[in-house]
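Q: Got a minute? One more chain.
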Amino acid sequence: MTKNYTNPETIGLHVGWRKDETTNSVAVPIHQTTSYQFNDTDHASNLFALSELGNIYSRIMNPTCAVLEERIAALEGGVGALAVASGQAASAYAIQNIAKAGDNIVHHRIYMVVPIISLKIHLQILELKLDLLILLILRIF
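A: Always. Here it is, folded:
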């Protein structure tokens, strides 16, 4: 049964997970695993071909993150979301999805400096150029 929640607090608590059928626990379980067993070779083949949704390897997808992603998408009114382990990973994913070789990316210097240095090195491999834009912010009192 799919419910359409409208209250942000309810969305944050209930979208993507309702209860465990075995224990009736309503808390989202934390799956501490790195890999998953396939039912058979056809099941594995379908998962890797993306013709069937399921877990392959926890760095690609896991049930705990799937609930978080579903809740974020519901809160933001989106069709999907992606949870990553760090801000640097999020920045890299965002840039790599909107830029192509030869593009120039301009950012503000307030953005975290250390991740930008590392990101700049990785972007050079992709033939992307990252420039620092120094903005003067004037306050008028």
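A: The chain has two domains: 8-76, 87-133.
Q: Perfect, thanks.
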